[in-house]
């Protein structure tokens, strides 16, 4: 979800009698397909929904405990990997080992519908045009099985850290990160992506149930103003889509100004090429008949996640396909062509032998990927991504596999979580008390006379982090962003 207008430190904006609140509710309830739903809709918009999590199944840790967690939770029909937590688990999830290792991503189920409608496939070339903080990007990477290439663009530099952190935490490495306005990125990529997601910056009127601060900014006039930006982004997203590809336009807004009216703006430029399709994953996301009559018949295939029908926040999803190639003003060299022309697969023996001799494993390298030395680091990246490193909008690609010092590889946390389960020789099992000490950023005492130097720490067969044992003391390299003073286990 991209709520561009609400500052994080903004407090709840109004009580239930605030005129701004009542004006917004009246504006939105006029869109309901059945007037009898108004009381339930208003109640849902004023009630904070439950806590949902999505399993980050790129990581072995998530696959290991998924069946036990799924047995305790309600799954989401359109995204089986997303679960509504019961209250006792919801209260502990943010400080749980499972969450801190990246096996869980806290994500409202409404927001997962867009990626389900996008339906990304392994090996494809996919664009997420407004990717931060990374919920949908990590969901896309998971669906692709860390193959192909996901170009994740975030124009605001201050949001890049959150995007990078979430991609790393969830084990996604089939990524190329860019930072530029979407309309400018369209100058470099022409009719190339198999699938494009535009989760557009919006007013956020659909998330009123969890954040009333948006009332400070919302008005029908402001929604119309935002739609101009959204139309520009949607046109750019459509241009970068290849003919026959799939584009999903989504918002966390329910208003027609930021949804159907934006699709109308796309038609004004590309009408002969646009095909609006049915969102089949949801059957009750309709618009009031008198409202729908204002738009082309195909718009009936778009979907709204109504909060009162699904006990979640509101969202809008539209699926669009492209009948033929498009043109873009001020087009520059086609960077997309470089992504389609991959270099030959490199010989991995030089680095693989050293990793295998020290850590007992060799990472699985997808077709078209390469491991390259980058200064003092060893990076795993898509073979075509490195060809774009000189572009002004390029940020980074792939993942840090290890750091190199004096011909020795120091494994990254992401590598430990993805492949650490293969380690056998330099493995150290620790108990819950020791684990809690490590996650506080402190060293703990261990009884491992046969081990000294570098190890991979395990708890209940889950790879936790890299560590160093010296004189019976273990220093664990738990990333600062994962540390907590109240570590627990959701499932013991």
Give the topology.
Layout: H1 19-29, H2 38-45, E1 52-55, H3 60-72, E2 74-76, E3 79-84, H4 87-90, H5 97-100, E4 104-106, H6 109-118, E5 125-128, H7 135-143, E6 149-153, H8 160-169, E7 175-178, H9 182-185, E8 193-199, H10 220-240, E9 241-251, H11 260-270, E10 274-277, H12 289-292, E11 303-305, H13 307-310, E12 315-322, H14 336-340, H15 349-359, E13 369-374, E14 377-382, E15 394-397, E16 399-405, E17 408-411, H16 413-419, E18 427-429, H17 432-439, E19 444-445, E20 453-459, E21 462-470, E22 473-476
Helix pairs in contact: 6-7, 10-11
Task: Walk me through this protein's architecture.
The chain is of the alpha+beta class and 492 residues long. It folds into 3 domains: 19-49 and 108-322, Vaccinia Virus protein VP39 (Rossmann fold), CATH 3.40.50; 342-416, Nuclear Transport Factor 2, Chain: A; 423-482, Roll (Archaeosine Trna-guanine Transglycosylase, Chain: A, domain 4), CATH 2.30.130. The protein is built from 17 helices and 22 strands. It has helices at 19-29, 38-45, 60-72, 87-90, 97-100, 109-118, 135-143, 160-169, 182-185, 220-240, 260-270, 289-292, 307-310, 336-340, 349-359, 413-419, 432-439; strands at 52-55, 74-76, 79-84, 104-106, 125-128, 149-153, 175-178, 193-199, 241-251, 274-277, 303-305, 315-322, 369-374, 377-382, 394-397, 399-405, 408-411, 427-429, 444-445, 453-459, 462-470, 473-476. Strands 5, 6, 7, 8, 9, 10, 11, 12 and 15 form a 9-stranded mixed beta sheet that branches. The chain has a 5-stranded mixed beta sheet with strand order 18-20-21-22-19, sandwiched between helices. It has a 4-stranded antiparallel beta sheet with strand order 2-3-1-4, with helices on both faces. Helix 6 crosses helix 7 and helix 10 crosses helix 11 (260-270). The two termini are 32 Å apart.
């Amino acid at each position: 979800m991209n709520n561009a207008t609400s500052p994080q430190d903004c407090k709840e904006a109004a009580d239930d009698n605030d005129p701004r609140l009542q004006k917004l509710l009246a504006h939105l309830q006029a869109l309901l397909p059945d007037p009898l739903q108004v009381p339930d809709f208003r109640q849902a918009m004023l009630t904070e929904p439950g806590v949902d999590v999505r399993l980050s199944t790129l990581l072995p840790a998530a696959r290991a405990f998924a069946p036990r967690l799924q047995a305790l939770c309600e799954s989401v029909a359109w995204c089986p990997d997303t679960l509504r937590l019961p209250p006792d688990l919801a209260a502990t999830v943010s400080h749980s080992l499972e969450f801190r290792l990246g096996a869980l991503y806290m994500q409202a189920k409404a927001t997962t519908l867009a990626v389900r409608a996008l339906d990304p496939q392994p090996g494809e070339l996919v664009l997420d045009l407004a990717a931060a903080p990374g919920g949908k990007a990590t969901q896309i990477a998971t669906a692709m099985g860390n193959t192909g290439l996901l170009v994740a663009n975030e124009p605001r530099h201050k949001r890049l850290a959150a995007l990078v952190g979430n991609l790393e935490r969830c084990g996604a490495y089939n990524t190329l990160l860019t930072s530029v306005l979407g309309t400018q990125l369209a100058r470099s990529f022409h009719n190339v992506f198999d699938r494009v997601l535009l989760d557009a910056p919006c007013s956020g009127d659909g998330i009123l149930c969890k954040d009333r601060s948006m009332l400070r900014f919302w008005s029908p006039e402001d929604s119309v103003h935002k739609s101009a930006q959204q139309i520009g982004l949607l046109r750019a997203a459509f241009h970068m889509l290849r003919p026959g590809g799939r584009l999903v336009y989504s918002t966390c807004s329910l208003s027609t100004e930021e949804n159907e009216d934006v699709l109308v703006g796309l038609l004004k430029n590309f009408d002969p090429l646009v095909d609006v399709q049915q969102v089949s994953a949801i059957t009750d996301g309709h618009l009031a008949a008198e409202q729908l009559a204002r738009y082309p018949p195909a718009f009936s295939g778009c979907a709204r996640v109504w909060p009162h029908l699904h006990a979640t926040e509101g969202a809008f999803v539209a699926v669009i396909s492209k009948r033929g190639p498009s043109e873009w003003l001020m087009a520059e060299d086609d960077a997309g062509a470089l992504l389609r022309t991959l270099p030959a697969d490199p010989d991995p023996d030089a680095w693989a032998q050293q990793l295998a001799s020290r850590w007992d494993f060799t990472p699985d390298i997808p077709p078209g990927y390469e491991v390259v030395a980058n200064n003092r680091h060893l990076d795993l990246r898509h073979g075509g991504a490195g060809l774009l490193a000189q572009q002004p909008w390029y940020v980074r690609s792939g993942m840090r596999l290890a750091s190199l010092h004096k011909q020795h590889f120091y494994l990254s946390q992401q590598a430990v979580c993805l492949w650490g389960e293969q380690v056998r020789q330099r493995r150290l099992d620790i108990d819950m008390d020791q684990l809690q000490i490590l996650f506080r950023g402190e060293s703990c005492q261990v009884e491992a006379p046969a081990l000294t130097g570098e190890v991979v720490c395990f708890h209940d067969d889950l790879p936790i982090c890299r560590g160093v044992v010296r004189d019976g003391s273990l220093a664990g390299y738990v990333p600062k962003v994962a540390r907590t003073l109240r570590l627990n286990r959701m499932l013991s």
